[in-house]
Amino acid sequence: xxDRILQKSTDMFLRLGFKSITMDxxxxxxxxxxxxxxxxxxxxxxxxxxxxxxxxxxxxQTITKxxxxxxxxxxxxxxxxxxFKEMFKSVESSPIYQLKKHYPEIYEKVLSMQVSICEExxxxxxxxxxxxxxxxxxxxxxxxxxFYYTLIFSINENTMLEKDAQxxxxxxxxxxIRAMATLTGIKELEKQILNH
Length: 196
Hints:
The protein is an all-alpha fold. The protein has one domain: Tetracycline Repressor, domain 2 (Orthogonal Bundle). The chain is built from ten helices and no strands. Helix 4 (44-67) packs antiparallel against helix 5 (73-87). It starts with a helix and ends with a helix.
C-alpha cells in the first residue's frame, strides 16, 4: 500500500503541483482514508520528500539506460533531453521551481542529490565526446561541467512553466555543445537539431 500511495502522490504532485495537492486529495483519488496515508507517511513533507527521491531514482535509472545504448556523445545528450520531455510531458509547472518556492528545505536536500549525479553525467559525456572527436581536446572539463550545470539549474529554478523550461534547456544544450564542438561535432549537432 505504501508504494501505491507514493506512486499516486508523485503523479499528482507532478501534474498538479506540490503545494496544491492535499492529503485529502490523495486519499479521495485513491478511495482510502487519510488515516491510511498517515500510517505510512507522518506528514505531507515526508511524502513529498519520498516522492522526489522516487522521481530522482527513475531519472537516474533512465539516464543510465540511455548511456548504455552507445549513442555518440551529442546524440546521447539529445536522447536524455527527449527522455526528460517524455517523463514530464503532463507536468504544467516546473517541479524544481515549485520545490524551491514552497518547500525550500526539501529543495536543498534534492539539490545536493542532483548535483553529484548531474556533474558525473556531464563529465562522462564531455570525456566521451572528446574521445569520439566531437568535442575539442583542450577543453577545461571541470569548468564546462560547472557552466552547464549552473545554466540548467538556473533555468529550472527560475522558470515557472515546465514547457518553457524545456524549451530553454534545449537552447542551453545547443549553446553548451556549440561551445565544445569540433567541426565534426557541429555537423552532428546540426543533424540532431533537425531530428528534434
